[in-house]
Write a structure and sequence with these properties.
Length: about 325
Amino acid sequence: MSAGRKGRFPLRLRRHPVAWTRQRPTWREARPAVIAAALKRAQARPSGNWYVVGATADVPRDRPLARTVAGREVVVWRDRAGRLVAGPGSCPHLGAPLGDSPVRCGTLICHWHGLALDGSGRAGWEPLPAHDDGVLVWVRLDDVGGESPREAPVVPARPALAGALCTVWTGFGVCEPEDVVANRLDPWHGAWFHPYSFVDLTVLDAPGPAGAGADGDGFAVDVSFKLAGRLVVPVRAVFTAPEPRTVVMRITEGEGVGSVVETHATPLGPDARGRPRTAVTEAVVAASDRPGFTAARALAPALRPLVRAAAGRLWRDDLAYAERRWLLRSTGRFPG
């Protein structure tokens, strides 16, 4: 793909499609040491102890959102002014689940005995730092993260939300956040593992085990998104990890330059069998300067479920990858 070139129409017809079994193998390029080194560098970056707990749209005015982060029950809601409030998800009185309680005029009212919480400390309940970036909501847990706290989370640069199409998908897997991040830092698996979505994938540049490549500490990829039959949308994208639990795919050439797909991994805590569970929150913030994109945004209520369904299909496979990676690591059989 030539830099800066964009045709009149975003779609292309694959003139000489290659069968899945005949595409070029990528296992030699997908060196375990390269993926492991990229993961290690991501884990060394500061997060400021911030964790994604859901989508902005998951926190309306009339009810809270509950999440468990690393075994800690957390509840978030909106105060009378619409600002995000967060704190422990267990009522300090007798331990009622505050996520099941209603919000009235910005006050969370415990449904067991009526303890009213307006976001200020009361009866042993103390608020937690919270942040709403317009797409996702975050909570800061200093005793969980153990890092030097930051005033705000590391939010990737995004297209202006007013002109973008935004969707958020959330799923859960038996693995740890590092297994999710490692999956996203392995772009070589795309056309092999997801042939229904990606074709003609080439990793142009990748950081070596010792550090950055030509595109910095990111993986530059040429890939075509498959629409139907031989119709595809070719783009160039770069994968980066701005903090330990986030990987961002940013389109740098082709249709939708500047659009991002953010993958955030949040540790939940062990399941009934003692296995770790992780929430995957994937935010798509798509933008385009084509006139037709305005019409697409007008159809956003109909398009968002389709985009979420596509993300869910991909993550059905990618969570299997992450879960398998954790299983092998936990039993001492992981070859990487």
